[in-house]
């Protein structure tokens, strides 16, 4: 189901169980660093335990949501609020009052949106359908509006998020094997460019994105002679071997294939677990360092 730009893209296609993550002892946090553990649900969505006004549940870590928090009013007790946007399927409401969020018992912050004319107010949608797909205790989205105050490291091997306040964060290292991508958060997220068979393709990286490639019909035909796009027999998926971005050649597997005018390569829940990613808003970059983890295998893209 597609929802507005402030929410996530959900699909009915199931993934196999998320790849097992090698558990290691996490290094000691640096001075001033905040460490939040997370877990992956069966689709591969990263979930952080927490609470809103004492109501326990999980937040979805979504680098594609521009708000600090977007709450699920179907699960979180909130007042009626004021209608401030959305469409027939998604109604966005603003709620006054001091709502509090607890993140993993480590950090307590206002559960506000951080955007719009009332940045201290909470925003919500009725996310009962997403709640069925994500978790029965789905509190809502934890978005870029929160993470932009930190240099954020997402470590999929140890399943922790490390937050270092911008004023205290040292320069982000860029190992030779890392991939550096442009990341300029907006609503919607601004794409960077990948090359697929010589074709420049708008690309986004997002912690909740379903890995997919959408091209115009003519451009599917144009890249066919390069033979970089290969079918995945029995799955209805494709592999791209390779795509080029950030100056590196990268093999992509188990992508959905579609034809549409608005072209887009989305790198998300199958791609990101292969890397430790550092999201640095000071320079507008995300640095991806391979972690040796194999991507989760998708059952079907049909």
From TrEMBL:
<feature type="signal peptide">
    <location>
        <begin position="1"/>
        <end position="19"/>
    </location>
</feature>
<protein>
    <recommendedName>
        <fullName>Aspartyl protease</fullName>
    </recommendedName>
</protein>
<keyword id="KW-0732">Signal</keyword>
């Amino acid at each position: 189901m597609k929802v507005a730009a402030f929410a996530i893209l959900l699909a009915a296609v199931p993934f196999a169980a998320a790849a097992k993550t090698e558990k290691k002892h996490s290094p000691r946090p640096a001075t001033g660093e905040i460490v939040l553990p997370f877990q992956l649900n069966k689709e591969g969505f990263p979930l952080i335990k927490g609470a809103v006004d004492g109501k326990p549940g999980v937040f979805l870590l979504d680098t594609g949501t521009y708000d600090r928090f977007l709450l699920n009013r179907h699960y979180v007790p909130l007042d009626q609020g004021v209608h401030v946007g959305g469409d027939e399927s998604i109604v966005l409401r603003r709620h006054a009052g001091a709502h509090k969020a607890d993140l993993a018992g480590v950090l307590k912050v206002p559960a506000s949106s951080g955007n719009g004319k009332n940045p201290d107010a909470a925003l919500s949608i009725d996310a009962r359908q997403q709640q069925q797909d994500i978790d029965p205790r789905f509190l809502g989205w934890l978005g870029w509006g929160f993470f932009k105050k930190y240099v954020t490291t997402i470590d999929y091997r140890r399943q922790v998020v490390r937050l270092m306040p911008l004023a205290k964060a040292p320069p982000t290292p860029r190992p030779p094997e890392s991939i550096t991508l442009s990341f300029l958060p907006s609503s919607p997220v601004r794409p960077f460019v990948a090359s697929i068979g010589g074709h420049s393709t708008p690309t986004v990286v997002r912690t909740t994105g379903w890995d997919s490639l959408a091209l115009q019909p003519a451009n599917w035909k144009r890249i066919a002679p390069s033979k970089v796009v290969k079918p995945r027999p029995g799955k209805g998926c494709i592999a791209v071997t390779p795509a080029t971005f950030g100056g590196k050649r990268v093999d992509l597997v188990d992508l959905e294939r579609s034809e549409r005018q608005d072209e887009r390569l989305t790198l998300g829940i199958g791609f990101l677990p292969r890397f430790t990613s550092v999201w640095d808003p000071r320079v507008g970059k995300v640095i991806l360092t391979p972690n040796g983890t194999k991507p989760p295998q998708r059952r079907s893209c049909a």
